[in-house]
Amino acid sequence: MSQIEFYKYQGTGNDFVMIDNRQQQFPKNDTKLIAKLCDRKFGIGADGLILLELSKLHDFTMKYYNADGNEGSMCGNGGRCIVAFAKQLQVIETDTIFDAVDGLHEAHIKDGIVSLKMKDVAEVEQFSDYMFLDTGSPHHIAFVDGIQDFDVYNTGKSIRYGAPYFEKGTNVNFVEQQNENTFKIRTYERGVEDETLSCGTGATAVAIAAYHSKKTSKNNVFLETLGGTLEVSFGTDTNSYKKVFLKGKATMVFKGFFEL
Ligand SMILES: N[C@@H](CCC[C@H](N)C(=O)O)C(=O)O
Prior knowledge:
Radius of gyration: 17 Å
Bound molecules: the ligand N[C@@H](CCC[C@H](N)C(=O)O)C(=O)O
Structural class: alpha+beta
Strand content: 35-45%
Order of helices and strands: EEHEEHEEEEEEHEEEHEEEE
């Protein structure tokens, strides 16, 4: 039996088991183990598990697994949390470039607040009652009234498994505008298969969708999630979005050990 050290981090309530895997001691193909570690009754409890690994060219590599144990697409809140974790491990100081599943990310950390550069967005699909875009992860966005009482779980689940997404699925965001550049957002997350308190790639997608559909003319947008507020800013260039930054607090909650 061997002991593995883990840290628990959260970014606006999206929580992660974080492991320093620079020595490759964690069995990352063990889907059942990852799902068990993320289980809130039988494990540590988290929306996902993140490994910090060595990178040949950059400061580190981020490997992200959803709570169901499968490797996920990009996680924005997880990306912010791993920057705080890398600082804690003294892998970085205040600025970094790291590898993730969707490419390189630059980030800056100051006073526990992480500003993370997200991938450029070249395409935003607009339909009569929803929008779709990929900010590193796929996001379906629907603007609704009365978001407080909205049935995010059941409506989100039926959209996630329905046409045109089916097996591959999507994350599903419900949004209500509060003022010129503030939006309330609730997200059903693929791979967690439940509503989470916050989704970073979802917040990024909503900010861009709101601007693209002319709900705001501001290119810095505040997203009020159930776990706190995120800020997204971006540059615009004939329907494509560059220099996209996701900003918010990333916090270490506790550390511990588990047996393999
Ligand atoms: N919580 C994440 C989103 C993670 C990706 C997602 N669940 C998927 O694989 O579809 C975030 O903060 O972006």
